């Protein structure tokens, strides 16, 4: 077979997707058939660095809480800010890619991540920490949708499954090993090292991206306007509600500040809905919610986001605050759960094409509900590996919930709404995670206060067990050589610490119980969903 005149022999056999633009074809001409794999590695480095950052901070929260004297309702903003900003950035990804191209969008995203990480490492106030996490979240929101887009643009159809599988394994492993990396950073140095632990990977990705990332194909292309009004309205609605819930403990749930925040957020959400219906390029197209199959399976998507991010927030806190484990031990605990997801995702994805996905969703939600039920009985004496096995069960449930729910929801919409549906699924997942972390942190704080007040009210002169325990504590302190009066006072302090520890344990158990109830409701709704239709 003869080659076209002037075509390099090494480049002639390169298989390029038909819809690949001129910029991508130029890169293939420069690097050859292996270009797609170099590009995949670059995208994986960027995504892994941002996703590692999403979970490394969770194990450092107790240290940050101690350093800044924060409550749970304040500390949760470091996780919520990341999720909220990444949610909004995902909706702006299509606009950035269309107008500026993948290269400029990727470079901007990685630069924002590096600057945000450095800012977090030197922050001396909570506000700066939240800003740094928001900058990291913007990077994650821009990079994740771009990766899937470029895989479809550079890999032929017969290789896309392999490419997506390799990319997905890396994306799943990052949150699995992120807590362990964060724990080691805290134990070796301090919580500040957590913010820069993933910078080597991010800097390497930024260095190679100008050479490998394709530029935009602007020739003859119509610029897509940014729906900045919609994004502002959505930001007001999202951040306003999160702020209302987070500050309600301090301001009062019936205070003017809380009610105003809720009213403004609700109004912004309503205006956002009607604005998006009229905008020619909406940030989040309301038309996708006209399809019953989409919005019905969206319930599971939101629940899955709550499960992943909520449990990843609570579990490292529990094992450090209640069970006294080191940050490293708390992080290592999450690795088997991540490996379970690596195994579970491909199985669930394959079964989604073969059987009614409602059975997979039923199994997944039931497994997570069972795990949450077991965790609702956790104590300070629960063995380490028993707790690990319960967490693994929860990740098996997530594996069999996330993939079928995402796939089935997107299948509901016609082809011209496909991009809007995939963006909507990502938005719902992240929004569910943001509100899950936010509400669980608020609930944890309230239940700690509730149980603390309830237990303290029982510690009085009429309680013979309290008097007996105080006498034993005082006597034990006196045997160490402590003066009688000092021992008498210190015994009260020791009992107060025990009460605080027990109140914290009970509060965590309440949070896990609420998660269990939520998934029982979702499980009950699964088989009321419409029978999925393939498109």
Secondary structure layout:
Layout: H1 9-12, H2 22-31, H3 35-68, H4 72-75, H5 77-122, H6 126-154, H7 157-188, H8 192-196, H9 199-212, H10 228-251, H11 256-278, H12 292-321, H13 327-332, H14 335-352, H15 357-375, H16 384-411, H17 418-457, H18 464-479, H19 484-526
CATH class descriptor of the largest domain:
Mainly Alpha
Structural class: mainly alpha
Strand content: under 5%
Biggest sheet architecture: none
Second rung of CATH, namely the architecture of the largest domain: Up-down Bundle
Describe this structure in words.
The chain folds into 4 domains: 198 residues, Growth Hormone, Chain: A (Up-down Bundle); 53 residues; 197 residues, MFS general substrate transporter like domains (Growth Hormone, Chain: A, Up-down Bundle), CATH 1.20.1250; 54 residues, no CATH class. The protein is 79% helix and 0% strand. The chain is built from 19 helices and no strands. The radius of gyration is 25 Å and the shape is globular.
